[in-house]
Amino acid sequence: MQERAVLTRQAAILGAAKTFEKFGYSASLGTILQHAGVSKGAMYFHFASKEELAHAVIEAQHAMAMEGTRLVGTQSDTAVEMLVLVSQEMARQLVTEPIARGGMRLTMEIGSMQGPIEKPYLDWIDAIKEIALQAADDGDIVKGTDIDALARF
Predict the structure, then answer these.
(1) Are 117 and 56 in contact (CB under 8 A)?
(2) What is the mean pLDDT of residues 82-107?
(3) pLDDT digits (tens, 9 = 90+) for 41-87
(4) Mind listing the pLDDT tens digit for each residue in 17-51?
(5) Those residues with Cβ within 8 angstroms of residue 57's Cβ, 6 or more apart along the chain or in another chain
(6) Structural domain total, the chain
(7) If DSSP codes are grouped into helix, strand and coil, which group holds residue 84?
(8) Residue 107 to residue 122: CA distance in whole angstroms
(9) What is the pTM of this model?
């Protein structure tokens, strides 16, 4: 994909995320395009429908969360420290990143309309479980803690 096309696609996703964060999935396509600063033709070049664009926002949020988890892992000395830093990174994303907020809102709204969107949650739970198991092996989590419940929480 040409650089201009990549930038247009990213602008559409960011604009959609900002719009969905504010208005939810019921936001009009016109409002999305206004926030994105792209034409209807440019949006339809990348996304066949508003629903496809919404799923792209969810995927971008999921990728951001998983990348944050990966980066935190490279900066942590212990698994228990990583658990804390991963939680802080997720909070940071939700405060500062429109894609995180828009993606989370869409995951809940679309999931309630079409059935659960499970992949982001399952990937997140698996990542936290892996870290928590290491922390338990290190002796940093109280023996007998239900690691599955901890990861889901």
Answers:
(1) no
(2) 95
(3) 999 999 999 999 999 999 999 999 999 999 998 999 999 999 999 99
(4) 999 999 999 999 999 999 999 999 999 999 999 99
(5) 13, 16, 17, 20, 99, 102, 103, 106
(6) 1
(7) helix
(8) 13
(9) 0.86
32 to 23, 60, 105: CA distances (angstroms): 10, 16, 15
Token match 């290190």: residue?
A: 138
- Six token digits for residue 98: 């429109």
Cβ distance 40 to 125 under 8 Å? no
Is residue 57 within 8 Å of residue 25, measured between CB atoms?
Answer: no
For 24, the domain range is 3-152
CATH number for 134: 1.10.357.10
Least confident of 2-6, 24-28, 95-99, 106-110: 106-110
Distance, CA of 149 to CA of 135 (rounded, Å): 15
Residues 6+ apart with CB under 8 A from 42: 8, 12
Band the pLDDT of 116: cuts 50, 70, 90.
low
Asked if 38 and 13 touch (Cβ cutoff 8 Å), the reply is no
Structure tokens given for 3: 């650089």
Distance CA 24, CA 103 (A): 10
